[in-house]
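On clarity, I found the account of how folds are encoded harder to follow than it need be. For illustration, here is how one protein appears when written out as sequence plus structure tokens:

:::
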Amino acid sequence: MTDSLQSANNYQSPSPEQILIEQILQGNTSLFDQLITQYRNQVYRFILKYMNDPARAEDLAQDTFIAAYEKLNTFEGNAKFSTWLLGIARNKVLNDINRAGKRRSQMVSDDILQEHHSLEKDPLEEMAKKQVFSALKKAIDDLDGDIKDVLILVSLEGLSYDEVSGMLKIPVGTVKSKLFRARTVLKEKMKKQRLS
């Protein structure tokens, strides 16, 4: 097979997202609103997993999109756009936490994540679920930063090992071992809370 045939076979047509980004970079900047609309909720929910302040999370989500717009020409398409965007959001959160000094990173409070319960549900069962949820949230919040990041990105955001590896700039094997460690620590914390 000739080189030209091989390169033709290896060619992948650009995704609709890549086409949109190319149009934005060529001057049709109003199209960036489509990316904001598509990813706004995902970015906001991601940031809320790190902090207990919805207003601040909204500010950081806006900062994330401003930074993404300013850096759009650096997006190479090697990873999904959402992965690249969450990487920017994560950096915004870490910078905010570092600037805040003593303020701790916390998972979002119960009142934000509470579900609307129907009257048909058993109140005792619902109370037990809330207690487990609250304990789990606290256990995740208490994890060390590096394993907490991996747990949130893989287990809660659904990113692949490769995507997390690229975002955190660590080998895939390290992602897997940190995830295993996070899950092990989490199980131990939950076991202790049940015993106490």
User: Anything to note?
Assistant: The mean pLDDT is 78.
